[in-house]
UniProtKB/TrEMBL annotation:
Name recorded for this polypeptide: Sporadically distributed protein, TIGR04141 family
NCBIfam families reported for this sequence: TIGR04141 family sporadically distributed protein
Originating organism: Vreelandella aquamarina
Stretches for region Disordered: 542-568
Amino acid sequence: MTVRTLNIRLLREGRDIERAFTDTFAPNAGRALQRGPWELIEGATVFVGQIYSNPPKWRSFIEEGSNEIPDEIFTGGAGAVIFVPIGARFAAICFGHIHIALNDDAFERQFGLKVTLNSVPGSNIRSLDLATPDAVTFQKRVQASRDSDVNAFGVDRLRDVARVAGGTPKDPSFARFVAGKDSLSITCELDINDVQKKCNEIFKVYEKTDYKTDFKWVDNLRPVIEKDLIEQLDEKLFVDLGELRKGNPVDLHMSPPEVANYIEGSELHYNGFGSHGATFHSLAITDYISELNRCKFTGDIKEIKEKHRISAKPSDKDQFSEKWKVYDCFIHEASLTSKTDTLYFILFAGNWFQVEALFKDSVNKFFDEIDTVNIIGKTAAHNEQELIANLVATRAADLLKLDREKINPAGVRNANLEPADFLSDKKHFIHLKDGHSSGPISHLWSQGVVSAEAFVGDKEFRKKLRSIVKSEKKGFEVHLPKSTERVVREKYTIVYGIMRQPYADGTLGLPFFSKVSLQVSVERLRKLGFDVAIELIEKPASSAGVRRGRTSSVATSEEAGGKALAKS
């Protein structure tokens, strides 16, 4: 029997094949593909044609030194797709460059990934593409030279999103190798007369839930990429923007979508709807809403996504150098309810994610059970630098500032590891961050872990730290072990202090993704033997007063993110 490799997609339920193409290649369009029956299967239809044909980009370079270039030289790509009926659905067997002509939203997302994970056991993975959503989304591809256990691929089961997977199925009669994301690549023994039988077999595998045995974590987070679903969620976002414009409380917040040179106190402009450069000093949903009302904005969510921008100028610069889309700064939660289920979503850094309900509940439960402390208390400071300065001035008796003290662990140059922002006389290593400045709060979690690991495992680090503490405040070094002494870990607590503005109901919280990444760090610190505690430090909700075209006092800044998602 012939071994073949096929690329297969699954048409979404209720879609007909005429709507499976982009407008350019749709039936009756100017570049419509040739259509006809595929006679080996009753009811199967084939579309075939030239997808593109262009002069090669290198032609002009060759012509600089030669006139002997034939006019008929082109680069081109052909493509074809066979729609095979499988019950009430259609499988699409794709060839060549046909993907250019297909409308992605007409096909099931993650079809290939689900077939792969349902047919490949956790011990037979060969390739895995992962993405970790955060203020900056990190993506990685891990490939093994032979089938390997999924645990060897470095998967963060709390934070990683599976994008593509490949491996060897446990049933060799099904396939020799499969890999997929939205489409499925399957290598198998296949007689040309058994194509429909194989498509039905693939569909049955797709409908299974075997993946939950070894890959249950893939359900935790899923990027939403279906345009019609995004439109539904964006409409819910627009409705909540309308509620805010009416003065009704809604948990919609804003945060820089990427790590940027921005802190509270920078100058900000909201542009794209006639605001004419009104200056603010915080990224704040309240300020954006007030500008929409002042400018009598009457557009829709599409206009907001395409035209509304934020420009930022750090306090030490002369030009507005940072620019973001307003939409990319929104952090918002939404839910969609059907007759049988409720689905939860969060908008983060310009992307919607579907969050599995049980995963959401487990993350919130873990966060709620972390010890809380009240070391700092409510503050009038607007950013981390102001808070540190206030603590230095008022808490010298029980807190020693270690902010900006850099230590290189043994054998490392230019590491510049900061042990903490403060050390307390109760043996608290306190790490502080303004939760409304740029960059993900997860950086703070990592700082606490790396510092704790160095404190436990590096005598040279402890020696340098004790020396710094002694030089800053003689006698305070008694709270640290000597470099030759064993660290009694249970005596020390790693404290994360995050400055937060209150929600509409006056409570404090963290964005959902920040809770996810915090759980990873807390688990690592507990394995090291440390206690961990958290303090949400209430900062001013507003210090308003905006003067048009000039700098002003600090306005409200909000980031939060899916409070209802985070607390429900």
